[in-house]
Design brief:
Helices cover 26% and strands 28% of the residues. The chain is of the alpha+beta class. The chain has 3 domains: 66 residues, Uridine Diphospho-n-acetylenolpyruvylglucosamine Reductase, domain 2; 111 residues, Uridine Diphospho-n-acetylenolpyruvylglucosamine Reductase, domain 3, CATH 3.30.465; 103 residues, Uridine Diphospho-n-acetylenolpyruvylglucosamine Reductase, domain 1 (Alpha-Beta Complex). The structure holds flavin-adenine dinucleotide (FAD) and uridine-diphosphate-2(N-acetylglucosaminyl) butyric acid. The site of flavin-adenine dinucleotide (FAD) has 32 residues, from strand 3, strand 8, strand 12 and strand 13.
Amino acid sequence: MIEANIDLQPHNTLAIPANTAFFARVETLDELREALSFAQQKRLPILPLGGGSNIVLTGDFPGLAIQVGLRGLTIAPSGRGGTIEAAAGEGWHRLVMSSVERGMGGLENLALIPGNVGAAPIQNIGAYGVELCDRFCSLQAMEISTGELHQFSASDCEFAYRDSVFKGRLQDQYIITQVNLRLAEDWQPKVSYPALQQFIEQQGWDCNSLTPAQIAGAVTDVRNSKLPLPDQIPNAGSFFKNPVVNADIYQSLKAQHPDLVAYASGASWKLAAGWLIDRAGWRGRRHEAVGVHHQQALVLVNPGRGSGDAVTGLARAIASDVQDKFGVTLEPEPRYYP
Ligand code: FAD
Ligand code: EPU
């Protein structure tokens, strides 16, 4: 059923107040097709919605927001891995924990990432040294213009750091309906991410006998120590991507700031944007309704449930200051609508 003039504040984790001209929650492929043809007839733009944890509403949306509520989760363990087929409306964390509870390894580093399965490929979600593309097999998506279903392999998706073909060449052309994952049978723990390694050392756990459940627990504790829960403090996770720079820029910044945090990424370097923003003096600062989280400067928060303009204004001020102080350009991670 399509409803008119619906408040999207409960549908975005930044809790920005904004309306959508039309809203539909779809639970079957036929309902999704019907919603798409309604939008086509009225020439409306479409906003596919999962949990709303990676969007910034800069104003009212003049089209049809479609909450993708397709359900279904099939898990087939094999050895310490197996395969998973998940419909787009399943919760990502539920999928991770359902596999971990069956003794399967491979997704534990991605525990507690908010949102739904259908959004996970959009920015190739990643955390603690693992990205979706490392466990991805294929996906199914409905073409918005035709209602036809298409299969995409990993290479079709053109995954990269916080990026995929669905943010580039094929942006706004498909609704993801199902994601298929493959977890290797010879699972090995991946705990080299500094904060994770430190947590495991503090617990005194033996690195040779770690289980997926232990690592999922460790990731949960580390995340909870610095990332605010959106229910308590509205936010969209990291507001900017970690900027990737060439070796010359990295060397010159490192010479000026010996404690700069950066990770080698092929021939390039990924700078910790949180460190840059923190060092520029923004951590914990509040500007009316919005602010910068006091435990993680990469997370903008909206405790006063301010407007999209308030959030994007603060983001612009931070990016401009980081540009002035370090000569580095910050790019927002969540997508702005409209
Ligand atoms: P939404 O916000 O609803 O949508 C995000 C984008 O995907 C939008 O452009 C939307 O139109 C599109 N989209 C959604 N569903 C579909 C679909 N079925 N088909 C086509 N397009 C679709 N991300 C990480 O990568 N790593 C992290 O560690 C991480 N930590 C976070 C921590 C917090 C506290 C928060 C609030 C966010 C964090 N995020 C992280 C960001 C976010 O959780 C992910 O990007 C997640 O995949 C978004 O899922 P969602 O269902 O909420 O997507
Ligand atoms: N740092 C500071 N000050 C801060 C914040 C961070 O100095 O205020 C330093 C930390 O001390 C640490 C480094 O920056 O040495 C990196 O911080 P952290 O481990 O918290 O990770 P991040 O680079 O800020 C990225 C992802 C997160 C993901 C974590 C763990 C991006 C944009 N963000 O954050 O993803 O959970 O690594 O892998 O890549 C998200 O995308 O929404 C998200 C939360």
